[in-house]
Amino acid sequence: MATGINTLATDTMNIDADIQGLKDSIQDALLMGDQIVGQNSNTQVVRQAQLRNKELKETKNDLEVDIRKKEGIINRTNRDFSDVKDSLPESQTDQALHVVEDYTVAILLVSYLFAILGFITSYVIHAAEFWSGLGQALLASTIFTMLSTLILYYVF
Known about the structure:
single chain; mainly alpha; 2 domains; 5 helices; elongated; transmembrane helix; coiled coil; membrane
């Protein structure tokens, strides 16, 4: 029984020494931090933070002004097209695709037709027989057109 008490007393004394060592380490770290940072550095950090905050507020205000200008442009543009919007029904039908109204698609379609006609012409010129070459060129262009239409429809 005396051994258990001695062991407990020894452990308690070792714990007190450990706690004192930790307190000393913390005090040394605090002193080192004060030497590195110093007393005046807090005002420098605060000044830098205030300058950065001021810069960010100015940037925010500039962005808000820019957003208001762009919203004004959008609203004016919407007014320009309000007569077109009023003439159209709310929901467009999905049955017919109005590609002729879009000039870009119409130009691409015409250029595609010219490319196909150029392919058919060059294939027929190089073919041994006119009618078999024309049939093969038409078949190849039809298959190519169907495949490209499927790819464009399902991918894009």
